[in-house]
Write a structure and sequence with these properties.
6-stranded parallel β-sheet; globular; 8-stranded mixed β-sheet; 367 residues; 18 strands
C-alpha cells in the first residue's frame, strides 16, 4: 500500500517537458521517461526512452519526482562495463545514484517524509534502477530533506560523494577532533567532501591535488594542499596521520599513504578490487578471491606497519546523510557544479566526462 497526494499532473508541451507519463485510476504514476543502459559501451549506448515502467513501492520506499541527478565516476565506469559480472544478467539498467527532487508517494511504513517535500539522497552502488529518470525509487533511509539554501542541481551533487567520504572517515576511521587526516586526491567530489567533513569534525587536514584546486581546498579549511604535479608529495607532507583516504588508489599513492600513517592508523582506498576481480573471474570464483586479497593485505599491513587497511564503498547511512544535510545547510559542505545538461542530452554529458572536458561535477536537470 502507498500513500499519495497528487498536487498536479504534469503534461509535456513537446519542448522537453514531461511527456508520456502513465497513471493508474488513482493518479499514481505507472510509467515515465528514463535513460536506459541496454548494453555496455560508450555514451552512444545510452537510450532516452518514454514509457519505462515505475514499479510498485515497497513499504519502506519513497517515489521521488526527480529534478536533478548528478553524474558520478561510477556511472561512466558502469556504462563501460565495470561490474559486468553483477550487472550484465540484469540489463537493461538505469544508471545514476544521486538525486534531488520532491516526494511523489510513500510506502505505508515511511514516517519521516511526506508527499510534496523536497528531498535529496543517493542509491546504493549496486542499485539496478537508478536515478536517471523522471521518477526514482529510494528507501526511506537513503533520503533526507533537501537543504533549503541549495538548488536541486547543487543538492544533487552532494549525497553519493559525501556519503562515500562519511563511511570512510566516520564509520571506518572514526575520526575525531584533533586527528590528522590526509586526503590523497582532494580535488574530486569525494576528496573535497572528505576534506570538509574532516574540517567540520575538528581535524587537521592535508591533501594532494592539482594546482587548480588549491585555493578552493584551502578556503574549505585544509591546512596544507600539495600540488602533486610540481612537488614531491611524500617529501612535502610533514609528520604522520591518523587516517588516510586515497581517492586515487594506484600503487604509488597506496605506498605513500601507508608510509605516512601512524601506528594504529587507517588507510582507506576507493579503488578496492572486488568488482574488477569478479569481472575477471566471475562471481563464484571472484568474490571469494577478492575477499582473500583484502584479508591478505589487511594482515600484511597490520603486521608490517601496524595499520588498518580497507577498501571503501558508499553505503546508505541515515545519520550520515542528515549530518551532511546539516553541514550543507550551514554552508560547511558543498560540491561545486561545473556544468548542467538537460537529461535528454545525457550522451553529450557522458562524452564530456569521458573526454575530461569538464573536470568537476556534471548534473543532469529534469524539467
Amino acid at each position: 500500500m502507498i500513500r499519495l497526494i497528487s498536487r498536479r499532473i504534469e503534461i509535456g508541451t513537446g519542448d522537453g517537458g514531461i511527456s508520456n507519463l502513465g497513471f493508474d485510476k488513482r493518479g499514481i504514476v505507472t510509467s515515465c521517461r528514463a535513460v536506459l543502459l541496454p548494453r555496455f559501451g560508450g555514451p552512444e549506448v545510452l537510450e532516452f526512452r518514454d514509457n519505462v515502467a515505475v514499479p510498485d513501492l515497497k513499504p519502506n520506499q519513497v517515489l521521488v519526482r526527480a529534478r536533478a541527478v548528478s553524474i558520478n565516476p561510477l556511472d561512466t565506469r558502469m556504462r563501460s562495463g565495470y561490474g559486468r559480472s553483477i550487472f550484465e544478467p540484469l540489463l537493461p539498467l538505469i544508471l545514476g545514484r544521486d538525486i534531488s527532487g520532491e516526494v511523489a508517494a510513500v510506502g505505508n511504513s515511511v514516517k519521516s517524509l511526506t508527499v510534496g517535500q523536497e528531498v535529496f539522497g543517493a542509491l546504493h552502488p549496486t542499485a539496478v534502477r537508478g536515478s536517471y529518470t523522471d521518477y526514482a525509487i529510494l528507501a526511506e533511509d537513503e533520503l533526507a530533506p533537501k537543504p533549503g539554501s541549495l538548488s536541486h542541481a547543487e543538492a544533487s551533487a552532494i549525497p553519493f560523494a559525501a556519503l562515500t567520504a562519511w563511511r570512510a572517515l566516520k564509520s571506518t576511521a572514526r575520526i575525531r577532533e584533533g586527528h590528522r587526516v590526509l586526503v590523497i586526491g582532494g580535488g574530486g567530489a569525494v576528496g573535497f567532501s572528505a576534506i570538509q567533513l574532516a574540517v567540520a569534525a575538528g581535524c587537521h587536514v592535508s591533501t594532494t591535488c592539482g594546482g587548480e584546486s588549491i585555493s578552493r581546498i584551502l578556503a574549505a579549511g585544509a591546512e596544507q594542499a600539495v600540488d602533486y604535479t610540481i612537488e614531491d608529495a611524500e617529501v612535502a607532507l610533514k609528520g604522520h596521520f591518523d587516517a588516510v583516504l586515497d581517492t586515487i588508489g594506484v600503487p604509488d599513492t597506496e605506498r605513500m599513504g601507508i608510509s605516512l600513517l601512524k601506528k594504529g592508523g587507517h588507510y582507506m582506498t576507493l579503488q578496492g578490487e572486488a568488482a574488477s576481480v569478479t569481472d575477471k573471474h566471475g562471481l563464484a570464483i571472484g568474490l571469494p578471491m577478492a575477499a582473500a586479497i583484502l584479508l591478505k593485505k589487511q594482515i600484511q599491513y597490520r603486521y608490517s606497519h601496524g595499520i588498518e587497511y580497507w577498501w571503501n564503498y558508499m553505503r546508505a547511512d541515515a545519520e550520515g546523510l542528515h549530518e551532511i544535510r546539516r553541514l550543507s545547510e550551514a554552508g560547511k559542505l558543498q560540491v561545486p557544479v561545473d556544468k548542467t545538461f538537460p537529461i535528454s542530452q545525457v550522451r553529450e554529458a557522458h562524452e564530456a566526462k569521458d573526454r575530461r572536458q569538464i573536470p568537476g561535477k556534471v548534473v543532469l536537470e529534469i524539467d
